[in-house]
Design a protein that fits this description.
By secondary structure, this protein is of the alpha/beta class. The protein has seven helices and four strands. The protein is globular and about 35 Å long. Residues 1-21 have low confidence and may be disordered.
C-alpha cells in the first residue's frame, strides 16, 4: 500500500466532509505531524498552506480580526502560526473545521530541539516559533 493510500484511508472521515468545508485549520504545534496533515489534505483535494508565516500573514494574524488574505487562495492552513489565533479564526470563519495534531511530549521536545538546532541559520523564522511556543507555555 502506498503512503498516500494509507493517508487517504486514515483520513477517510475528513474526505466525507472535505467538499463542504469552507476552511480547515490545523492547530497542532510544530513537530506534531502538521506537515503530514498538510500533505494529507492536499491528497484529499484541499488546497493547503503549511506554516503560513510571511509578513503579510503575521500582520493580519496579530491584527486581531482573524480574516486572512491567504485564505482567498487556500482552503486550509496548518502549523504553529495558526495556533494562538484559533479563536479569532473561528469567529471569522464560523463554518471552519479544526484539526488538532498531537505527539508524545518527550518525543515532541526532542524533535523540536533537533528542528531548532537545524534552523539555527534561519533564526528569524525559528525565533517566531519559539516566541509563540513560550507564549503558549509549551516550553516551560
Amino acid at each position: 500500500m502506498l503512503v498516500s493510500e494509507r493517508i487517504e484511508s486514515r483520513l477517510g472521515r475528513i474526505a466525507v466532509w472535505a467538499g463542504a468545508v469552507v476552511l480547515s485549520l490545523g492547530i497542532g504545534l510544530s513537530r506534531t505531524g502538521t506537515t503530514s496533515l498538510a500533505m494529507a489534505l492536499e491528497i484529499l483535494g484541499i488546497r493547503t498552506k503549511h506554516y503560513p508565516h510571511d509578513k503579510e500573514i503575521q500582520t493580519e494574524l496579530f491584527g486581531g480580526d482573524g480574516h486572512l488574505t491567504v485564505l482567498r487562495r487556500y482552503q486550509a492552513i496548518t502549523d504553529i502560526s495558526v495556533v494562538p489565533f484559533f479563536r479569532q479564526l473561528d469567529a471569522a470563519y464560523p463554518d471552519s473545521r479544526f484539526i488538532l495534531t498531537t505527539r508524545d511530549e518527550d518525543a515532541w521536545v526532542g524533535s523540536l530541539r533537533r528542528h531548532l538546532d537545524d534552523l539555527g541559520k534561519h533564526w528569524d523564522q525559528s525565533r517566531l516559533t519559539v516566541r509563540v511556543m513560550l507564549r503558549l507555555g509549551a516550553l516551560d
